[in-house]
Amino acid sequence: MEMMNILIKSLMEGTDGPAAVFITGNLAAVIRGAAIASAVISLLMCLFGLKLIRVWNVLFGLLVGGAAGYTAGYFLGQELKITLIIAGVCALVLGVLGGIFKKFGAFWVCFVSIFTVAAGVVNLHPQDLVWVAVCAVLGLLAAVAAMIWMEPLVIISTAFIGGFGVGNAAILLLDLNNLYVSWAIYAVLVIAGMALQFMMKSREIGRKQAAYSNEVKGEISMEAEIEQARTLFDFDDEEEDEE
Prior knowledge:
Layout: H1 2-11, H2 18-48, H3 53-75, H4 80-100, H5 102-121, H6 129-146, H7 150-174, H8 179-242
Helix pairs in contact: 1-2, 2-7, 3-4, 3-5, 4-5, 5-6, 5-7, 6-7, 7-8
């Protein structure tokens, strides 16, 4: 539990006495519960990112809208109450728009996913403006590409952020400190998520093609029957004319 203890100490810095002991025990349970919840959500995203895209669109819309609204209120010098109201309104607007317009929501899903993963890979710090810009550009490229090739980019983005989310939760809960083991976990989860999602999409396309093929065959068969019936009627008419 070394990693858990380090995280708790960093959160509890400056607090001591009996209150610190009480808070520490509850904080450990909260962190563990949050890690499990994060692992479950991340696993769903990793394996069913495209299938549940509207769900992620709403969640990411709420996240982006809330963060943007809070940042705007803060820099405009508003009171905390007003800032929270602005954040709530922005979160609601982007969440609703993401749920209604699939591509609009997918833009933010891909942007946030790739930006977050890139930031984790480079161990980004807010003061490293160059790396912040690099991560933002990578996220923006993925988001713009998703406007053209939405489904493949959504699969790739959700597999990455979902795989990294599950990996981080597992590393925290299992107290893994080996860098190579951590990267192996990330790689396996990301590859498995991509493979499963592309496989499900391929089967879905196959089913649609089979249904379309059957529909076309049915139309061709119906046209053949109509033509056969028409030929039969024409033949009967010719016999009547001969008589």
